[in-house]
Design brief:
Elements lengths: L7 E2 L10 H11 L10 E5 L16 H12 L4 H10 L7 H11 E8 L6 E8 L1 E5 L8 E4 L6 E4 H4 L6 E8 L2 E3 L4 H7 L6 E5 L2 H10 L1 E5 L5 E9 L7 H7 L10 H10 L4 H5 L6 E6 L21 E3 L10 E8 L11 E11 L10 E7 L1 H9 L1 E11 L1
Parallel strand pairs: 1-8, 4-17, 5-11, 14-16
Antiparallel strand pairs: 2-3, 3-18, 4-18, 5-10, 6-10, 7-8, 8-9, 11-12, 12-13, 14-17, 15-16, 15-18
Length: about 400
């Protein structure tokens, strides 16, 4: 999930203390019409024969993803309602039938932005598996927090629709809303004592769990607990990989989740220095109504399917859309410079992410556990997306 926050956040300076009502209303008096500029994506219809590698996609796992998608999309769009009703009448488990169905129901469109660009950055994410406990003890000393009781979340767009997708997060101090503590402040001062949801055994794995936004924690009893994104402390994510590159500790082409973990393991005395560069903290909730065989929930509230679910920027691609993706993915266990494997397959845009920004930006969900994490952590390649729209 890449670390899936479903809204943009209003960055709040640490030096700025203000009265919430005065600040909001003063701003809107000065700016009677507030608009947020958004780039426009351009779609050009093309035949299926122009989708690179379309005949070679075996469509394995896609029928299940499509059925899951229909549970949400059939009520949101008339065209999708028709698609989903027709899908119920055929055997989608047969790849040849499924391919014919897709070709009869959808029209591929080449995606480009206002600058004419037709490709962009593709990355990957996964569902981590950590070791932990419901109580603190032994190796389990690192907390995963639930949403703190004092966190204030103000949806500005609910008051003023002109301010779209902006939320103000902080805490009350008298009659003022002040910035919520940063990661460094929370950890150094123990500010969230009593808000622990679970305890895990590795601070770096806990950090990357927050980056992914959801995961599983295996308890000493053998039980596995699923956790998902609940809230966030209001600060934009700041890349610790970029920090290490800027400090000359990592080379730009070698900055991956694996290389960051290896660097921290070799420099444990600098662990907090590095992790605290990211002020953002994600708070979790326990998810109990999701079968273990299914993937984590994406931003649409639907289980994700490994290799078939994609996080996109919803400003350009409507969530729930079919997206054909052409890129390359890392080969498991291969060295960093390996060109990887060709990845050309039909996906569904079922998730979003705070770092997934732009018409051609995609984030592939690779699955659960360390093997999926090994691939997702090294995934960084140019790719091209095509949007399939119902006829």
């Amino acid at each position: 999930m890449s670390w899936s926050d479903c809204t943009a956040h209003l960055a709040v300076s640490r030096s700025r203390f203000f009265t919430l009502s005065l600040w909001i209303f003063s701003l809107l008096l000065l700016l009677p019409v507030v608009t947020i500029a958004q780039s426009e994506a351009r779609l050009r219809p093309i035949p299926f024969s122009e989708l690179p590698g379309w005949p070679e996609d075996d469509l394995k796992g896609f029928s299940a993803a499509l059925n899951t998608n229909c549970s949400a999309m059939r009520a949101r769009a008339v065209a999708w309602g028709r698609v989903c009703r027709d899908a119920e009448q055929i055997n989608l488990a047969d790849a040849s039938v499924l391919r014919q169905f897709i070709e009869s129901q959808f029209v591929p469109h080449e995606l480009s932005d206002t600058k004419g660009s037709r490709s962009g950055l593709m990355t990957g994410y996964y569902e981590p598996l950590l070791r932990g406990s419901r109580t603190r003890g032994g190796p389990f000393q690192i907390p995963l927090y639930r949403t703190p009781k004092d966190l204030v979340n103000v949806d500005l767009s609910s008051i003023y629709p002109e301010i779209k997708s902006l939320r103000l997060r902080g805490r009350l101090e008298g009659n003022r809303v002040v910035p919520y503590p940063t990661r460094a402040e929370i950890e150094r001062k123990g500010l969230l004592a009593g808000e622990e949801l679970l305890w895990v055994d590795d601070p770096v794995e806990a950090f990357f769990l927050q980056v992914q936004g959801s995961g599983r924690v295996q308890l000493p009893s053998g039980e596995t607990v699923r956790v998902g994104y609940a809230e966030q402390n209001g600060y934009p994510y700041r890349s610790i990989g970029r920090y290490l590159i800027d400090k000359g500790e990592l080379k730009p082409n070698d900055a991956s989740m694996q290389s960051i973990k290896a660097w921290v393991a070799a420099n444990p005395h600098r662990r907090d220095e590095v992790l605290h560069q990211n002020p953002s903290v994600v708070f979790f909730r326990e998810i109990t109504a999701l079968p273990s065989a299914q993937g984590p929930l994406g931003s649409m509230g639907l289980p994700l399917t490994a290799g078939r679910s994609l996080a996109i920027d919803p400003r350009f691609i409507t969530p729930g859309s079919l997206v054909y993706l052409s890129t390359r993915v890392p080969k498991p266990g291969a060295p960093p410079r390996d060109p990887g494997l060709l990845f050309q397959r039909l996906m569904i845009a079922q998730d979003t992410g705070s770092a997934v920004l732009g018409a051609h930006r995609g984030d592939i969900f690779f699955g659960t556990g360390s093997e999926a994490g090994e691939v997702a952590g090294r995934m960084r390649a140019d790719g091209k997306m095509f949007v399939l729209l119902p006829k």
